[in-house]
Write a structure and sequence with these properties.
Elements (H helix, E strand, L loop, with lengths): L9 H26 L11 E5 L8 H14 L4 E5 L10 E2 L6 H4 L1 H9 L5 E3 L3 H11 L5 E5 L11 E6 L25 E4 L12 E8 L2 E3 L5 E3 L8 E5 L4 H10 L4 E6 L18 E5 H7 L7 E3 L1 E5 L3 H19 L6
Parallel strand pairs: 1-5, 1-6, 2-4, 2-5, 6-7, 7-8, 11-12, 11-13, 13-14
Antiparallel strand pairs: 3-4, 8-15, 9-10
Length: 336
Amino acid sequence: MQRSWRKRGPGALALWPVALLYGAVVAVRRRLYRSGILASEHPGRPVIVVGNVIAGGAGKTPVVIALVRHLQSRGLRPGVISRGYGRQSRACMAVLADSTAQEVGDEPALIARSCPGLPVFVAVQRIEAARALLSAHPDTDVILCDDGLQHLALQRDLEICVFNADGTGNGFLLPAGPLREPWPRPVGFVLHAAALPPAGTSSPAFGTRRSLAPWAVRSDGQHIAIRELRGRPVHAVAAVAQPEVFFEMLRAAGLTLAQAEGLPDHYDFDSWEALFGERYSIICTEKDAVKLWRRHPHVLAVPLVLDIDDGFFKALDIAVDQCLASATGQLGTPRG
């Protein structure tokens, strides 16, 4: 399906009438929120939504982690909310450093492990997660929402739209193309992995690049240099939106893949077994490791390093300061 979304071939054209109907539903839903017929709510702190307009992964979670670390470096106290896609519970709950992906979702679990001490809450309705977060951590300055660009029940102050290297694909709405909603549309910032931002983008846009860290990490925190894995076959596994991108990065780092096992995004790994037992070292992404390490602690996770064009964080700081000033004046939530 994702391959067919890259061009306007016969399959995409056949689904185009369905995409028109989908687009009409999206437009009506947005109007209902704008008119107040469908209720939306603001939690009372500046809200930054990091999301995308395409189906599948675009690299939102690494962006959220980068934003958290940047805001913390400024002395601010961010918190993160998320739906917790793929978890077994629908309850609103805090995400702790030892929370399992089954309880809270793989991406929130990864965020909590990557940013120790960071308040992270999950709920089907993001506003519930925001309320719980602020109740437990009332000194929170800024709320980051991991995903939720289309979750209009949560009012937001700033939107950051993330694109992978495929951009908007064939430009069609679902199911004829990858778009969840029409593009272009106004957002605060666009982050794109392709050489140029998607066609029609008028918002400030900045390029991103992802690369492998020069090390892999075990469940006990032990680091192993990637160079030590060269020259011996490894079994690579990835349950992300574009597993082949991860596999190509491993090959580019000089690793020999005896097996490249791509699985559906958010795969739970409960019944997964290594194809070759312990014959080869098993390498996965950090997102997969939060699930695999429960049963396979010897698996090696290779972190991804995100680099964002110069100027983005400076522009972000200006936008965040404006949000904080507005919150201080209108909502009575001092910057601290």
